[in-house]
Amino acid sequence: MRLNFPHLAVLAVATLALSACSAPPEDGAIHDPYESFNRVSHTFNKGTDRVLIRPLSQAYGTTVPDPVRRSLSHVAAHLDEPKSAVNHVLQGDVESAGHSVFRFLVNSTVGVAGLFDPAAASFGLERRQTGFGDTLTAWGAREGAYLELPLAGPSTERDFAGLIVDVATNPFSYLSSDVAVLNTASTIPAALNVRYEFSDTVDSVLHDSADSYAQLRLSYIQNRKFKLNQQDPDNAGHDPFEDLYDEIYEELYDEF
Amino acid sequence: MNSDLTRRTLLFAAACGTAALRVAPARALSDDEARSLIDAVVNDIHRVINSGMPIQAALKEFENIFVNYADVQAIARSALGPPARTASPRQIRAFTDAFSGYISRKYGKRFREFKGGAIEVTESRKRSRVHEVRAIARLKGRAPLTMSFVVSDRSGKTLFIDILIEGISLLKSERIEIGTLLDRQGGDVDRLVAALNGTG
User: Fold this and answer.
1) pTM of the full predicted structure?
2) Which of A95, A163, B62, B73 is the most buried if burial means most Cβ atoms within 10 Å?
3) B139 to chain A: nearest residue by CA?
4) Model ipTM value
5) β-strand pairing of A146-149 with A153-156
6) A-chain residues near B82 (CB < 8 A)
7) Does residue A238 register a pLDDT over 50?
C-alpha cells in the first residue's frame, strides 16, 4: 500500500494520541491544563454564536420548511455513513459495519441519494455514527486534556486527533472531489438545524449560565462518555457506569 | 397483600428512624420500588405537560413534583457545596426554598419542549449504593433522549437525587452553577438566596 498523506496523518496522529495524551488528574476532576487558551477560544465561539450562528439558524429554521430541513440533514448523515462503516471495521465491530453499509445502500437507492432515511423509517436501522475518535478509544487511547477548539467547539486531545484523521481520510475524497465538497457543504445546514432544534438547550448552556465555559465543558465530557458507553455497553475491562455513578452520590449523605 | 402489616412495619421503621436519626433503612430499596417512584414522577409530568395549563401554573406544578419526589434538601446541600457546612440552619432553609423555586422555573420551562411527547420508563437497576431508573423521552420530530433518574432511600424516604439527560447530570451542572453564583455574591449565602429568588 502506497503511503500517501492521509495514511501518514493517521499514523502520526494515532501514535500521538496513544502515547502523548496528558495523564488525567487523580481526583476525577476534568483534566484541563489548557484552560486559559480554551477560555479565549470559548469567548470567540460564544461571540460567533451570538452574532452569526444563532441568527442564521433561526432564519434557517423559520424560513425553510421542516421536511426540507430534515432531508438536508439526512444528506449530511448519509454522506457521513462510509466513515462510520470504516471506523466500525477498525473497532472490530463487524455487525455495526454491516449495519452502516446496509443503511448506505438502502438510503442511496430507496432513499433517493440520501434525501430520505428509509433504512431507519422502514427497516428500523437507526444511524450508528462513529469516527476515528471512537476508534482511538476502542484502541485504548486516553481521553487526554479537554480542548475547546475555535468554531469546532468542545473536544479532547483524543477527539481532536480523531477529527483530524476523519477529515484527512474522508472516503469520498478518493471517489470524487465533488462528492467530497458536497459532503463538507452538507454539514452546514445540518449543523444549523441542530442549533435551531436545540435552541433552548444551547441558549441555556451558552448564554444563560453563570459560567458557560465550565457548563459546556462538563456537558461535553459527560455526554461523550455516555455515548461511548452506549456504543459499547459490554466493553470488557471497565464498568461503563463508573464515571457516572461516582462518589458524588455517596457524599450526598455521608457528609451530614 | 397484607397491607396492614406493611403499614405497621413502615410506621415502626419511621419511629425507629426518628428515634435514632440517620439510621439506615431496615430493608434495602428494591428495583421495583425505585421504578414505581419514577413511574409516579413521569405520570405527574405527563399530566402537567398535556394539561395545557398556563406556564406560571405549570411551573408551580413542577415545583410540587420536585418537592414531592426529589430529596430537595440533599440536592440543595450538595449544590451549595462546602459552605453548606458553615451556613446557619436558617440560611440552609432559605437557600433550600430559593433553590427549589429556581430549579423548577429553570427546568420546568424546558419541559415545555416535551409537549406532545411521552416519557417511557424502561429499566431499574442497582448501581453501588443508588438505583438508576432509565427512561426514554420521545419528543415530536426528534431523536429519542435517554434519561436516568438516580434514586436513593438514604434520607429515610425513597426519593430521586439526580436526573441525567443523555449522560448529563443536573446535580453536577447545578453544583457548578450555584458555586459560580455564590462566588459572584462574595460567598454570602444570604445574597445568593436573594439572587436565586430574582431569577426568571
Assistant:
1) 0.85
2) B62
3) A197
4) 0.82
5) antiparallel
6) none
7) no
